[in-house]
Structure formats: structure tokens, C-alpha cells
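Human: I wish I could look at a protein chain and see how it folds. This is the protein in question:
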Amino acid sequence: MAPARKGVYGGEVPVSQYSLVLDVDDTGLRRLSKTRARIIVAKPSGTSKPNVAWLANEPSETTTIRWDEAYGLYAAHVPVRDCAQIAIVAAVHPAEDCVIYPFAGTAFGDPVTDGRIPRRHYDVRNDDRRPATFGLLQHATINDLAVGAPLNAVVLPPGLTADFAAVTTLYVWTQAGLEAGSIISHVPADAAVVTFDPVHRARRCRFDDRTGTFAKTGGEP
């Protein structure tokens, strides 16, 4: 059974641990260094394509990313524009699923239970008088260095509710000029799509020097 964490407002938050290893050989490192490209990892919500760079890291021979399936929620300023880092003004982590978190402009309020919200869905309601940006956030370690950043971004007008569904799919590519938690207008068509499930919790990808892309090796680390 997976371990569990206590939510900020009580209740058990189930945790499932996952890992991704990214390998880059010397030729690949020289190529990426020349273009100042970083390794970008994005994680969508629901069926949408990612619109935020979750992680951005300098390439190394082996990059090991570990995370668990505990999620948070954040609120941020608007507007959001391409490549801009999200300016978080309030957050709750870990958040509980199956509830609605109201946001009044400076902080999230106590969650409200709603039986219509499925498991692994996290909802927010904008109770402020102004639009705000909301989304999921998640923590990870990159080569044992702890990081945390938003996963997605949605601008929500006053009085409306947004639903965010947790998924375990990652998109991996290289790009210059991006920081973790930055808005992205599109995901490259050749980005590696890496899927995880309770049986396959660990994956490995290798950088292809010829194509400049990552490819799954088919084996677990």
C-alpha cells in the first residue's frame, strides 16, 4: 500500500512514488551546451496538452527525477503570457481531492466537500472580484534536489469554478530560455511522451544525438 500524507485541512492524501531517468551522452551534452538548451518536463491536467513547464534543468549525463502523486493548488496573478514565470500569490500543498477550495483574493479558504467531484480531481472557485490564474502544483526531486512548480494554468473569472484532473503522463524535450513554472504556448511535436501507471512507476529515456529528442528505452531504471 502506498504511504499517505495529511492534507493541510486534515484527511489522508494517498501517495504513489514515480521516477524518470534521462540519459545524455557526451555528444548530446556538447550539442545541448552549444544551444544553451535545458531539459524541459511538463505534466498536463486531464486530457489537455501541457501549458506550463513543470521542470527545467541543465542537462547532465544522468538526470534522475522522482516525485509522488501528492498535488497542491495555487493562485497567481494574471495575465499569463508565453515564457513568463507564474507569480504565485497563494498555495495549498498537499491538497485534498473531491473538494472545492474557495479563493478570496489572498488565500484559499477551507475546502468544501462536493460528492460530484471524482477521485484525483481538484477544484477551485474564484471568490475574488477579479480574475486570477489557478492550477495544480507538484513537488519533485531532480538528482536529489527538491523543487516544486505549477503544472498547468487557467485564468478563471470571478464566481467560476475550475476542475483539475491529475494524470501520470510526462512530456520531455529540450529548449532554451525556459524556467520551471513558465507558461508555454505549445509543446513540440517531437517531445517524448512518457506514461506511468501503478505497475510501471519507473521509466528511462535516452537523448538521441541525431534527432535532438528523447526516446524511451523500453526498460525501467
